[in-house]
Specification:
Helix content: 55-70%
Largest sheet: 7 strands, mixed
Radius of gyration: 31 Å
Number of strands: 9
Structural class: alpha/beta
Distance between the termini: 93 Å
Length: about 575
């Protein structure tokens, strides 16, 4: 009985790997982890307040999200450095998902909490079905384009608060257009505070990176309002913040709202998980440890569920805060747990300090976060390495701006799949020639020293042959035979790159062989892999071309061609 209980406990601990890390932290690194947590807290509080407004809910809800997400990830996560909580891209995606379903002011908080719960539910399903591999499906250009486009949207979304404007944007084609047309109504003091915040945060990050710039900006903004009574001069402030934390519960929404939010929540989950996992993987690689991709699904899911039941917003791993945590010397998951406790202390005892915080300061902090997403280096690298992927990234930026965050990422993933299908349907092929002075055959287009063998086409395909590319293979071979100078009377197919062949490709190959035999073009194969040769035997290809038409090397096939008489009786070298 004791043994069974022990096994159950061990199985339980397998799903909460953070417990071991926290226990280790309590024993060996409590002081270092506490110092790191205090440093991270200085960034978590202002960012959580700011990103909650970005999600369209009261700023305090960002702190609710931080408490739940930090504690849950500390227990379930496998990255000791990842800081989970409110983040700009996911926050604005949540706002976009919730907006069409809002029927009254009270709906926003309930629906945003529901979005967090649904995101968590989707991620938990990803854990149950072991879908950690999907982190590899968001390509670099899509991520670069999505992040860049979301940065633009984030900056634009904060311009009203930055300039102290109150605009009904429904009368304008674009939000940026609405702001530009109403700049004459901007509040001077608010604008000064907002722009000063942007300059201050950027300056501190550049010249004093160890100082928590957002916290400094928040503190100075509050002091300015209190000392100068700026709220009496028309500067909008955060206002009353309810202390404490809400009783855990589920949102009060209709079944129709629930069902309509399911797919948008899936879209948020499809970004939140890969974004968190990629950040965590980067941290783990520098820290000398590894992540469990499936367990991270559970960790992100649990973090969102914990946020949702506390009236928080959808959360993901914050890249900026995570690197702050790592650089602050955090050793274990205890950092996240202590940080959650510090946020709780803030909610119970320090909320009054933030009530005089200017909204323009929060807008400035969010704008700096948005500017940080303009990763031009990624686009420079894409342009240098592969232009087609650069344009895929640019198309993603455009789709995010035109279709919004959720529509943009859906479009980008669809476009990426189309590109993948195109590459599969149009595999790389090459005509090989003999490199002068050697017995090596190389791609003629890429090697100027490679010369074709007169009358012989040596053809290579660098992919498996199956239903999607078999027709292209046949048409490409025929086109190259027709275009050869002098006309080719023989074909050598270099099959080294063909790892597999299906029945559709076998049928197409049989028809090609029959068509070429009808015009007296002989066909041989070189470097055929074992599984492909087995398929040839079962399908009757070897019987069709002859056992002596399969060669181990290309030069063997070429020697066979040179030694054989050409159609009409003369050998290739002595033809005429």
């Amino acid at each position: 009985m004791t043994l069974q209980a022990s096994e159950q406990t061990a199985g339980f601990r397998r799903y909460i790997p953070g417990l071991a890390s926290i226990t280790q932290g309590v024993k060996t690194s409590a002081l270092a982890d506490s110092r790191a947590a205090l440093t991270v807290w200085a960034v978590v509080v202002p960012q959580s307040l700011a990103y909650a407004t970005l999600a369209g809910v009261p700023s305090v809800n960002g702190l609710y999200a931080a408490v739940g997400a930090l504690a849950a990830y500390a227990l379930f996560g496998t990255c000791r450095d990842l800081n989970m909580g409110a983040e700009s891209t996911v926050a604005i995606m949540a706002a976009a998902a919730v907006a069409p379903l809002v029927t009254g002011p009270e709906d926003v908080t309930e629906l945003t909490s529901l979005a967090a719960l649904l995101v968590g539910g989707w991620c938990v399903l990803g854990f149950v079905f072991r879908l950690g591999f999907i982190s590899d499906f968001l390509s670099r250009p899509i991520l670069a384009g999505y992040v860049f486009g979301s940065g633009i949207i984030i900056v634009i979304s904060q311009l009203e608060a930055l300039f102290g404007l109150d605009i009904d944007t429904s009368f304008y084609t674009t939000d940026i257009g609405a702001v530009v047309r109403n700049l004459g109504d901007a509040d001077g003091l608010t604008t000064l505070i907002g722009l000063t915040t942007v300059v201050l945060v950027l300056g501190l990050r550049r010249f004093l990176p160890k100082i928590p710039a957002p916290l400094v900006a928040v503190a100075l903004g509050i002091v300015a309002v209190v000392v100068l009574d700026l709220d009496q001069e028309g500067v909008a402030i955060v206002g009353d913040i309810e202390s404490g934390v809400p009783v855990p519960g589920v949102p009060n929404v209709t079944f129709d709202q629930f069902t309509q939010l399911l797919l948008p929540a899936l879209g948020i989950a499809l970004l939140a998980y890969p974004d968190s996992f990629l950040t965590g993987r980067s941290l783990a690689s520098t820290g000398g440890y590894t992540l469990d991709a499936d367990q991270e699904f559970l960790a992100v899911g649990a973090s969102n569920v914990a946020s949702g039941v506390l009236q928080g917003i959808p959360v993901n791993g914050s890249q900026s805060r995570s690197f702050v945590q790592r650089d602050a010397g955090g050793k274990t998951n205890l950092v996240g747990l202590i940080c959650a406790g510090l946020v709780l202390v803030t909610l119970f005892f320090l909320t009054g300090l933030f009530e005089k915080l200017p909204n323009a300061v929060l807008a400035g902090i969010v704008i700096v976060a948005g500017l940080g997403l303009f990763a031009l280096d990624d686009f420079k690298a894409l342009w240098r390495i592969r232009r087609s992927e650069f344009w895929l990234g640019a198309a993603t930026v455009a789709s995010v701006l035109v279709l919004g965050m959720l529509g943009g990422i859906a479009f980008a993933i669809g476009l990426s799949l189309l590109v993948t299908v195109y590459r599969v349907v149009r595999p790389h092929t090459a005509e090989l020639g003999l490199v002068e002075g050697t017995d090596t055959f190389r791609d003629i287009e890429r090697n100027p020293d490679a010369r074709p063998v007169p009358g012989l086409l040596i053809y290579r395909i660098d992919d498996e042959l199956f239903f999607a590319n078999a027709a292209y293979f046949v048409s490409d071979v025929k086109a190259r035979l027709i275009g050869a100078e002098p006309p080719a009377t023989a074909l050598v197919i270099d099959a080294e790159g063909v790892s597999d062949i299906d029945t559709t490709a076998v049928q197409q190959l049989e028809e090609l062989l029959e068509d070429l035999a009808a015009v007296d073009v002989t066909v041989t194969f070189a470097r055929v892999r074992g599984p492909v040769r087995d398929m040839f035997e079962r399908a009757g290809i070897i019987e069709l071309v002859g056992e002596d038409a399969i060669y181990l090397e290309i030069d063997d096939a070429v020697d066979h061609y040179l030694a054989s008489p050409a159609p009409g009786g003369d050998g290739p070298e002595g033809a005429g």
